[in-house]
Amino acid sequence: MHIIAVDAMGGDHAPQSTVQGSVEALRAYGDLRILLVGQEEKLAPLLQDAGDVRDRLEIVDAREVISNNESPVMAIRQKTDASLVRAFALVREGRAQALVSAGSTGAVMAGGMFRLGRIEGVERPALATPIPTAGGGQTLLLDSGANVDCQGAWIAQFARMGAVYARQVLGVTNPRVGLLNIGEEEEKGNRQTKEAGALLKETGLNFVGNVEARAIPMGEADVVACDGFAGNVALKAMEGITKALFDLLRQELTANSRTKLGAALVKPALRRIKKRMNAEEIGGVPMLGVLGAVVKAHGNSSAKAFFSAVRQAYRMLEGNVTDIIRSELQDV
Amino acid sequence: MHIIAVDAMGGDHAPQSTVQGSVEALRAYGDLRILLVGQEEKLAPLLQDAGDVRDRLEIVDAREVISNNESPVMAIRQKTDASLVRAFALVREGRAQALVSAGSTGAVMAGGMFRLGRIEGVERPALATPIPTAGGGQTLLLDSGANVDCQGAWIAQFARMGAVYARQVLGVTNPRVGLLNIGEEEEKGNRQTKEAGALLKETGLNFVGNVEARAIPMGEADVVACDGFAGNVALKAMEGITKALFDLLRQELTANSRTKLGAALVKPALRRIKKRMNAEEIGGVPMLGVLGAVVKAHGNSSAKAFFSAVRQAYRMLEGNVTDIIRSELQDV
Fold first, then answer.
1. A152-168 and A191-200 are packed helices; what angle lies between their axes, rounded to 10 degrees?
2. Considering A284, A296, B216, B326, which has the largest number of Cβ atoms within 10 A of its Cβ?
3. Do residue A258 and residue B265 have CB atoms under 8 angstroms apart?
4. Which residues of chain B are within 8 Å of residue A217 when distances are taken between CB atoms?
5. CB contact under 8 A, A269 and B277
6. What is the ipTM of this complex?
């Protein structure tokens, strides 16, 4: 039986989306239990139609909620009765093995670091963002923002943790691991990237060497490792240009009656593309390297998106990701 | 009279595109002279229809050509009879004030550094890439790849040089200068970014603070400064996702007869978007901070694109960019 603690109060559409997504996950996986953490009087009424899974679902009352506007570290330290902090406590106490939250990214990161702590041997935990690729797959980009000033050895560890996730959760047999760089030649890169490259050549990973950021959406590697500053820049640049292109499309396609007719005909195709290239459709962002399977769902997660994030956490437990990261990083 | 040295042999479509682009620039600007540097026997026949501007165009013979496959620094040092090296020599000797090349980026950078040298007071020259924005404008991103390990003070200088270019060449009266970061809050960022932020607050620039990479294509700043690693990652990430989206569009729009009909109707609109968001349509990449106006045109420049790059160099001379950078950086 896998047990997941769900921060039922975090996210733009909480608690409806978190409760509904959790109930759907329970229906999908018979060996799953969920501890729904939040204000009991708000959560209980949402479970009226969940009688079929009610025996595997427990409400854990927590009175406070962490907002996006407060200091994540302070909130995690001081708001001991916040739904997110209680959820972390459940994992720490061993009552759950995984945590899913659509709340503040900073608070989830701080909670992972200070409430759970690092897996032995892990220098720095990392956020691993799945990026949709043109071919319909995904590339795992990490670190995508947790660690800004990185040593090369940390980046090499991100690569190793990413490879474990790709293998155990995404089912990629021998994941191709790339190092984000500004050119493919070995002598390229900043200090930390060159250090990481030298270390990665010595591992047993399927290391494909340096990759440029354009390789990420083209799917030229299954895992792309980098420091959290570069990773976040890549992520936000892709988000920005995608938004810009779709904004322009909307403008151009409503420009005259000819394009409006054309737009009506191609609309389903455009919707498919938008859906395929939308990172949020793939699921949440796992935090790798902490003592528990932690998944940060997108802040604006619908019930369906939250279900995907719970599924990711479930698969991390199925794939034994935490233990395998521990044993692989100890081998070095 | 402005004099520009053109590396006539660099680029995928040289020398046809470089010669044709140069001739068009001469027709556009009556006070422009061009020194066309390259193999005379290849260049002369291309000037048959250029009688109207022939008196402002001189061929400077150079026998060698630098390819993309050789070490840029070695090539610049050793191939003294290469068209690019001769062109740099013309600027250094004062026979020209600007240089335009569609050849190897590395060689143009090495030439700028070693053949021209830095403007007094400039710590590191930078590549400034104009990025098209959704609104039809452009954001100048620098450094976009020349300097990977940066001190904060260098990044602050990039911002200052970029602001001079935006004002003098792009005609932006009081350019909004942003600092590329992974969040807008002041405490965010890696070491060099925080250092740069502290310095930029003390300048007379119209400093809008930290901006995320998504602000670049959205046009939320006229100039975005960063280290060359982050800048290159942003650039390549945007290129990659744009290519991925257009590849998907092509697939989806030829999927069935309905979408094919729609595609025929929206094709001109899509072409306009592609054109607008194509960095190459805007022109080349100026190298700021060296003793001369240097513009790196795209390797696959057509005659029209090469003309744009020559026009940029001309505007840099008109706007007195080199002198203004010298005087502004000395004020600090």
1. 50
2. B216
3. yes
4. 237, 240-241, 243-244
5. no
6. 0.92
